[in-house]
Amino acid sequence: MAANPPPTRGAPLDDTEERLTEERVRIKEDNTMVIIPADGHGWKKYGQKLIKKINKTRSYFRCHKMNCRAKKRVEWSTSNPGNLQISYEGTHVHPQIGTPDQQGSSQEEASASRVNQYDLYTQVFGDHQNN
DNA sequence: TGTCTTTGACCGACT
DNA sequence: AAGTCGGTCAAAGAC
Fold first, then answer.
1. Which residues neighbour A120 within 8 Å (Cβ) at sequence distance 6 or greater?
2. Taking CA A61 as the corner, what is the angle to CA A94 and CA A90, rounded to the nearest 5 degrees?
3. Which residues share a beta bridge with A56?
4. Which of A20, A57, A80, A81 has the fewest CB atoms below 10 angstroms from its CB?
């Protein structure tokens, strides 16, 4: 990969960036575009693997919060990069971020009770399931 | 300068 | 027991 622009953070996303404030856009080497919808949490990518068994690329994300053990796996078919499947593991122990309307000191207090509302599996299987 | 992404390597589990 | 695959860590590079 030399001629292709590095698909790294901060890359110019044109006007699309305005609409994708919460999403991560990845333009891969083969010109396939993968849009990873954000869920209001700060995720750090710590690995990516090609799963041969299912012929999919899987990215591994971890929640930014040190005490938060929530993980997120985003996988997409090599032939259908737009067909994302997001899997969550664990639960967040903090409120969502990136939601200005909800940002506030009182939110942290509510986080404890909101944890139960983070039915992450419901998010995954109820919204992002594509199979 | 600091943060984040990318990629390769390593380790453990499973077949 | 050996090989393969999946998951995680760590270093380097880019913005």
1. A70, A88, A89, A90, A91, A92
2. 50
3. A51, A77
4. A80
| Phi, psi angle pair for A84, to nearest 5° | -85, 145
Residue A89: both structure tokens together: 């593991």
User: What Å value separates CA A87 and C1' C1?
Assistant: 35
A77: β partners: A56
User: What percent of chain A lies above the pLDDT cut of 70?
Assistant: 34
Say how far apart CA A130 and CA A52 lie, in whole Å.
Answer: 19
Question: Which nucleotide across the nucleic acid strands is nearest to A73, CA versus C1'?
Answer: C7
Query: Residue A48: pLDDT above 80?
Result: yes
A68 CA vs B3 C1’ separation (Å): 19
Instruction: Evaluate if residue A49 carries a pLDDT over 80.
Output: yes
